[in-house]
Amino acid sequence: MLPRRLQILVRRKIVSFKRLLYSHIWPIDPKSATPPERWSGWPEQKRFAMVLTHDVDTAKGHDRCRQLIELEKGLGFRSSFNFVPERYNVSPELRHYINKNGFEVGLHGLKHDGRLYYSKKIFQKRAIRINQYLKEWEAVGFRSPAMHSNLDWIHDLNVEYDASTFDTDPFEPQADGVGTIFPFCVRADTNPRGYVELPYTLPQDFTLFVLMKERSVDIWKRKLDWIVEQGGMALMLTHPDYINFDGNKLGMEEYPAEYYVEFLEHVKTKFQGLYWHVLPRHMARFWSKNFARLV
After folding, report:
1. CATH architecture of 48-294
2. I need a surface site. Which of 27, 134, 189, 254 has the fewest CB within 10 A?
3. What is the pTM of this model?
């Protein structure tokens, strides 16, 4: 019911308060560094894993995807793009372009209206439509809007992985972090195969640059350094909706693309040869193959 501008102003006040309150667990929760049982390290003897993901919340974000793809390609990275199938028109040509260039397409809810987990009945009804889109788009990954999550209900989706959680993020509406910087398997009697959960472990761009109004990528760098020390998974969640590519005056919900470029260049130069960079689906398949038996 609140205008978007007022929403942002209110959230900025709340985040400012919470940032002090939760400084002991954000951006780093020391307890989340514990590796899984029988952990022997990443493939190719890499020190840490690097996974890039994007949620495309609006039509504006959809229209900026090609610019983001070209940016990442130029720096030698690949990522996933999660679209909302019934909020705006998702171009088949764009999905083809993403796949053709070695990127990945996933789903970001169904409508992005905050009602996906309102009741089990609503979720099951929408799961039918979500599964239809997963099949049509040949997608295997899902992330809930607003980082809402119910890991038991996700078993109703035909996915190899879900990415609706985080290690620590007290600023989200559902702020119960999973407390790990590693993937983990989720299984149930109704779904013996289960799926892999991929929590994001680097703070969201929206939180840093829109709500906190940070003017550098120092927090990303600090958190990444810690993840590298722990040998974990650095999974990033950014939004093309909020990235300003043209250098014009920034909107209230925008930050310059140079921030993202600076961070990726930092990864390439400081950690050259040390990171295992894969798409989310490849991470999920690696984890399922090696750790599903331990669940």
Report:
1. Alpha-Beta Barrel (3.20)
2. 189
3. 0.96
